[in-house]
Amino acid sequence: EVQLVEFGGGLVQPGRSMKLSCVASGFTFNNYDMAWVCQAPKKGLEWVATITYDGSSTYYRDSVKGRFTISRDNAKSTLYLQMDSLRSEDTATYYCARHSRITQAMDAWGQGASVTVSS
Amino acid sequence: DIQMTQSPHSLSASLGETVSIECLTSEGISNYLAWYQQKPGKSPQLLIYYTSGLQDGVPSRFSGSGSGTQYSLKISNMQPEDEGVYYCQQGYKYPWTFGGGTKLELK
Predict the structure, then answer these.
(1) Which of A13, A95, B40, B51 supports an S-S bond with B31, CB 3.0-4.6 Å?
(2) Residues with Cβ within 8 Å of residue A39, at least 6 apart in sequence
(3) Strands A10-12 and A113-117
(4) Positive or negative CA dihedral for B36, B37, B42, B45?
(5) Sign of the CA dihedral with A61 first, then A65, A67, and A69 last
(6) ∠ CA B86-B92-B94 to the nearest 5 degrees?
(7) What is the SS3 assignment for B81?
(8) CA–CA dist B18, A10 (Å, integer)
(9) Three-state SS across A89-111?
(10) DSSP letter at B96?
C-alpha cells in the first residue's frame, strides 16, 4: 500500500523557519517525482514545489522562490520542504504528493501537515 | 501562469442524478488535465488523469472529457459518497495551477 506521511508542522513566528518531512512507503520512491501542495484554511489547493525523481531539478511557485527549498533523500525514501522567512500568508496545510510523469497528475497524497505562522 | 476557471462554484444534486463540472484554461494544455476530489478534513484524491483516464479504484460513474482549453468532469448516478469539493489541475506547464473548486452536495 502506497503511504505518504508528513511530519514537522506546528506554530512558528513570522520570519522564522520550519522543515517538513514526508516519509514514503509502499512504492519505489526514487522512481517518482514528488511535490508539495498547500491549502490555506477554507481555501483551495495551491501547488508549491516539485522535485524530480533524482533530485536533479526543482520547480517552485513564485511566492516561495528563494524562501522554500524542496529536497529528497532517496536512501531514506523521504521528501523535505525547508521553509525560511515564513510569512502569515504561508499558513496552510501542506500535503506531499507523488507525481506521475506519465499522467502529469498527483496520484497519491499524504494526510497533510498544518503550519501556522503567527506571533 | 495558466489560469483555471472552474464552474459552477457549487451545486447540489439528487440521488441518481448526473452532474457536470467545467474547467476552462487560459491557454491550451494538451489534455494534461486532472480532477481531484476532496472530502472534509481529508486529503485530495485523484479521480481522472490526462483528461479522461480513470484512476485505479475510482468508480466508473466518474468520467472526464475535453480538449484544448475546455474540460469537464461528469458524475453519473450521484451517490452520497460523491459529496465533496472537486478541483481541476493542469500539469502541462509550471507553475501547475488548480481551479478554484466546486462544492458538490446531495440534495
Answers:
(1) B51
(2) A45, A46, A92, A93, A95, A112
(3) parallel
(4) negative
(5) positive
(6) 95
(7) helix
(8) 41
(9) HHCEEEEEEEEECCCCEEEEECC
(10) P
Chain B interface with A: residues with Cβ < 8 Å: 32, 34, 36, 38, 43-46, 49-50, 53, 55, 87, 89, 91-92, 94-101
- Residue at B100: amino acid letter: G
Strand stretches in B1-107, DSSP E: 4-7, 10-13, 19-25, 33-38, 45-49, 53-54, 62-67, 70-75, 84-90, 97-98, 102-106
C-alpha closest to that of B88 among B60, B57, B48: B48
The rounded distance, in Å, linking the Cα atoms of A22 and A96 is: 6
pLDDT digits (tens, 9 = 90+) for B17-68: 999 999 999 999 999 999 999 999 999 999 999 999 999 999 999 999 999 9
The grid coordinates of residue A37 equal: 501542495
User: Which residues of B are less than 8 Å from A46 in CB distance?
Assistant: 98
Q: What amino acid is encoded at A57 in this protein?
A: S
